[in-house]
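If you are new to this repository, start here. Below is one unmodified record pulled from the training split, so you can see the exact layout before writing a loader.
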Amino acid sequence: MSGRVLDEKSQGVPGATVLIEGTTLGSSTNADGTYLIQNVPAGPQTLVTSFVGYNAKRQPVTVTAGQTTALPDIALAENTTLLSEAVVVGYGTQRRQDVTGSIATISEKQFVQGQVTNPSS
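And here is the target side for that same chain:
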């Protein structure tokens, strides 16, 4: 069974989990959101797709013996309410409401901006 997991902007979601419900079969998506699950038993199955910050999606599929079942793209919808904001401090991680003192918020775009350096080089 193979397919692709996309976000709301039709971009691949790397690292999403794709599982066959009720089994130990599954896979994670690669950099472009593609997955491959091998040795899926023939017959009706339920595919469960999930990723942090997105609503999980359950999809019924029918697997034919001896064939790779190519599925349509799976679109995940963002759910930012699933994430509680974490605060990184010099000695651990705490929830924002538990912290006293100065707090600054850095967006994802600000965080990944700039050059990555390796101090051991």
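Two things worth knowing about this chain: The mean pLDDT is 83. The beta strands are 2-6, 17-20, 26-28, 34-36, 43-50, 57-63, 74-75, 86-89, 92-95.
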